[in-house]
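Data card: per-record layout.
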Amino acid sequence: MQQLPPVQQEPALPVLAQKSNRWGYFLKRTFDIIASTSLLLIASPVMLLIAIAIKLESKGNVFYASPRAGKNYKIFKFYKFRTMVADADKQLAKLKHLNQYGNNDKGAVFYKVSNDPRITRLGNFLRNTSLDEIPQLFNVLKGDMSLVGNRPLPLYEAATLTTDEWAERFIAPAGITGLWQISKRGKKEMSAEERIELDINYAHRNSFAYDMWLIMNTPKALIQKDNV
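The structure for this 228-residue chain is written out next.
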């Protein structure tokens, strides 16, 4: 498995700042556990129906699991409902020319394809309604992710963001929703640099109160306008 360099350690914080950070982490983690458990219980009938529909539509696993890099480049197994054909990862190289972020051979690399031909008919619906992301609640419950944070990245994307400037986005926890989702999700004109700036902005402003504001503004971003 590809190894990623660790983030440089920050200088020791003043005692009051450390206590504030610990209290904020406690509130965030407590909220994550309570909310993810409740949402999983409520969503369990829907999850069962989605799982059956995926199996009926196409061959392959119900869940898509892949290694992702989260806070401080920590690698964990990331879960979603499968929305693409079974061999989608092998077809990625063929679609590089369709990448909405452009084909940048140097610097940051993100991959998003508008109207991706690998997506199944059901997968298209699941993505547009964000139902494919329900299994990430298991990641939140385990502590790999938070409800709010910067999106965990595939290793080939994270490996291009190891400079001192861009590595700042990994100071924040990995999350299901966040500043990028409510600001730019689904917009074709977004550049890789703009996305990184949003992630760094969140990392610097990360707090429990800010998380609550982002959660309240998430519903209107759930229904995205473009199939990306």
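Known properties of this structure: Confidence is low (pLDDT under 50) at residues 7-13. Residues 115 and 227 are 5 Å apart (CA to CA).

See the next section for split statistics.
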